[in-house]
């Protein structure tokens, strides 16, 4: 299936006026941005500004400093706050464009109009000025290109339920930038594309890409200890509609995004969905001292939350806060997500600091935020995943209470915290850890209908994204190699980054030559990865955790474009044991539907999910519980038999005996996973869980030996 050009419209317009020597006529007022019309070199340019008194289109020859033409929008080419003009006789391959917007200058009222500023089209589909990664201009000049889209997707649309996803969070550049990645186009969309066979082999079913919208990695560039530190992560959006051109292996003039589309198409062909990490809570324009890129110059007092004296509220921790619930900004966000869904076939979006999306224009929390409701009910977005990071830097923490309307899932930060603590032996966390493992029913069941939470029994199928590690914090290896963060390389005297890591170095800080410590660390990593993949809810882990990649104790590597952040693929061989273990656990999760969702009632009478405090049907998990197990059960219509899985966890430093439930006649427990290295095979009713270990048992048919 070939995409229709989403930027064109089958309409024929004719010149009516002349402006700066170009024939012009009123444009497509209901289509934001630059729209090529496909005849006579006609392009419709549409912007909107409530406070502007004049708008000028600036045309540049590619790469030149000064515009070769300045075309003022005729006053009659305005309807309401929208300015729209078709310019004829343009060759889209030969120019770049920006805008000059005039109007009142009154900072105390949030009005920052200045015709001297060259402003990037807010709806630009491609951005110049950031093509070469890490190139710093004294004064960045962002300009836009007109993009013509035509791409053959080959009918790749698909839909996979949340509970069937295994999400793999990655940074496009860092994933293949290291030499050990062995790709021909390191650090790019093409480099990631070359790694698809590995991802398919591993078994993950979704990649969650850290920001790929155009961002300014050189903002706040600095040098420390001989290294250049930049905004490597990319939570610093310049343009919401344009892919980051420095992630492309080749220049894409006027068809920007095709390399990304090829990556997405091939991921889909491999059965892997694509989720984008999107940043609508703040922009790269920063605070009062930040640059003018676009929003400040078009309508500063609309796009940002401002204090009564015209300064910026900073609920993002990054200088400004986008005014998400203003109708104009709502429209921008909805149009952006629709654009990526239609033109890039994106399967889901993870919203950075999503609680900001629920704040009113004065910064106060809203009970029923209109933007969140609109996204939940938008028809074009009805098939994509919406995942909230349900907190912000202003103190809102909404895990379990984020307004969902049966559509929004959440990064379950409470899962991370409880499991990190319990796994390292904080047994007083046992009651909460048990609830997190079975889908956090206390958070995602029996919520008021107005919030759209699930009815009883839903148990977090689609609500809880479980994770122990992500980009923000320790890697899985570092979680068991460091008691504290080691962010000295960031240049802030180790003051940045979280202090509440709930980590344990297993007896020695950092790399160890002690084989017993390294053996223990491997077991702890397996326990964490194993329980994550055996928990109810959608599992997510950080790229590289499957082979024990390290960031050398840095838990806030946002500025490290080097070996600290780049994956070291040599660990695939060095740590083959945990890599194969992770692959096996993903496969085991896929094999047993009862782990992922409620099936029909099991014939044996077992409930769908039950928690046992070491003895059968004893659900009393206390702050002294050192070992517990969860049993998943249900009737599998494919096998026409009960599917029963038992996940056992001992977090104590000594062995703990547990007693398994009786199975129906003809079935017995079989050990299929043991992080303590025990042999697989039939297990007895009483099992001694080895110190700090995970075991998974499956009910299988038992044929007694012939006498």
Describe what you observe in this structure.
The chain has 707 residues and is of the alpha+beta class. Among the domains are: 17-144, Immunoglobulin-like; 598-701, Immunoglobulin-like (Sandwich), CATH 2.60.40.1180. It has an eight-stranded parallel β-barrel with strand order 14-15-20-21-22-23-24-25. Strands 1, 2, 3, 4, 7 and 8 form a six-stranded antiparallel sheet that branches. The protein has a six-stranded antiparallel sheet with strand order 26-27-28-33-30-31. The longest helix has 19 residues, at 515-533. The termini are far apart.
List keywords for this structure.
single chain, 707 residues, alpha+beta, Immunoglobulin-like, eight-stranded parallel beta barrel, six-stranded antiparallel beta sheet, elongated
């Amino acid at each position: 299936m070939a995409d229709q050009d989403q930027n064109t419209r089958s309409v024929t317009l004719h010149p009516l006026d002349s402006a700066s020597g170009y024939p012009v006529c009123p444009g497509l007022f209901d289509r934001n941005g630059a729209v090529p019309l496909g005849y006579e070199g006609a392009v419709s340019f549409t912007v909107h500004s409530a406070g502007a008194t004049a708008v000028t289109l600036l045309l540049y020859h590619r790469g030149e400093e000064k515009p070769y033409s300045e075309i003022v929008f005729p006053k009659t080419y305005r309807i309401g706050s929208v300015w729209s003009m078709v310019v004829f006789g343009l060759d889209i391959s030969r120019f770049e464009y920006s805008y000059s917007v005039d109007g009142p200058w009154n900072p105390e009222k949030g009005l920052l109009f200045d015709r001297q500023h060259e402003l990037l089209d807010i709806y630009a589909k491609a951005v110049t000025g950031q093509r070469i990664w890490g190139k710093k201009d004294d004064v960045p000049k962002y300009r836009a290109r007109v993009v013509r889209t035509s791409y053959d997707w080959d009918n790749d649309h698909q839909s996979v339920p949340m509970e069937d996803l295994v999400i793999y969070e990655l940074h496009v550049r860092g994933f293949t930038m290291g030499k050990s990645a062995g790709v021909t186009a390191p650090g790019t969309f093409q480099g990631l594309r070359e790694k698809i066979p590995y991802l398919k082999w591993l078994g993950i079913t979704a990649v969650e890409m850290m920001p790929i919208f155009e961002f300014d990695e050189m903002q706040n560039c600095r040098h420390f200890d001989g290294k250049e530190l930049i905004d490597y992560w990319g939570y610093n959006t310049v343009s919401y509609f344009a892919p980051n051109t420095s992630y492309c292996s080749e220049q894409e003039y006027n068809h920007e995004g095709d390399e990304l589309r090829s990556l997405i198409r091939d991921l889909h062909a491999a059965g892997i969905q694509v989720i984008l990490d999107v940043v609508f809570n703040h922009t790269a324009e920063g605070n009062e001292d930040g640059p003018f890129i676009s929003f400040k110059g078009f309508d500063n007092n609309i796009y940002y939350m401002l204090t009564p004296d015209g300064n910026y509220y900073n609920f993002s921790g990054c200088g400004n806060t986008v005014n998400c619930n203003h109708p104009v900004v709502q429209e921008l966000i909805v149009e952006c997500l629709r654009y990526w869904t239609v033109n890039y076939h994106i399967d889901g979006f993870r919203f950075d600091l999503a609680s900001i999306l629920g704040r009113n224009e004065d910064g106060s929390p809203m009970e029923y935020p209109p933007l969140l409701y609109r996204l939940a009910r938008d028809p074009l977005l009805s098939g994509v995943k919406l995942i909230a990071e349900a907190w912000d830097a202003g103190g809102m923490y909404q895990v379990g209470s984020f307004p969902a309307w049966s559509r929004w899932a959440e990064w379950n930060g409470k899962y991370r915290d409880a499991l990190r603590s319990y796994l390292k032996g904080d047994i007083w966390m046992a009651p909460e850890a048990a609830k997190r493992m079975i889908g956090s029913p206390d958070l995602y069941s029996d919520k008021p209908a107005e919030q759209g939470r699930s009815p009883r029994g839903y148990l977090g199928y689609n609500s809880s994204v479980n994770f122990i590690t992500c980009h923000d914090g320790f890697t899985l290896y570092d979680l068991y190699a460091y008691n504290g963060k080691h962010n000295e390389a960031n240049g802030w005297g180790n003051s940045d980054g979280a202090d509440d890591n709930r980590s344990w170095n297993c007896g020695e800080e950092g790399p160890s030559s002690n084989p017993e410590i390294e053996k223990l660390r491997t077991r702890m990593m397996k326990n964490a990865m194993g329980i994550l993949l055996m928990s109810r809810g959608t599992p997510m882990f950080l790229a590289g955790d499957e082979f024990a990649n390290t960031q050398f104790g840095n838990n806030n590597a946002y500025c490290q474009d080097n070996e600290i952040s780049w994956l070291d693929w040599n660990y695939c061989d060095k740590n083959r044991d945990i890599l194969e273990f992770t692959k096996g656990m993903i496969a085991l999760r896929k094999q047993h539907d009862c782990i992922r969702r409620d099936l029909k009632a099991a014939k044996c009478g077992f409930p769908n999910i039950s928690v046992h405090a070491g003895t059968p049907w004893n659900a009393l998990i206390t702050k002294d519980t050192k070992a517990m197990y969860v049993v998943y059960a249900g009737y599998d219509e494919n096998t026409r038999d009960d599917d029963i899985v038992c996940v056992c966890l001992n977090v104590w430093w000594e062995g703990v005996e547990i007693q398994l439930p009786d199975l129906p006649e003809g079935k017995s427990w079989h050990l299929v996973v043991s992080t303590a290295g025990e042999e697989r095979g039939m297990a007895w009713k009483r099992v001694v869980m080895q110190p700090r270990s995970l075991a998974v048992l499956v009910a299988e048919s038992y044929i007694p030996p012939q006498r």
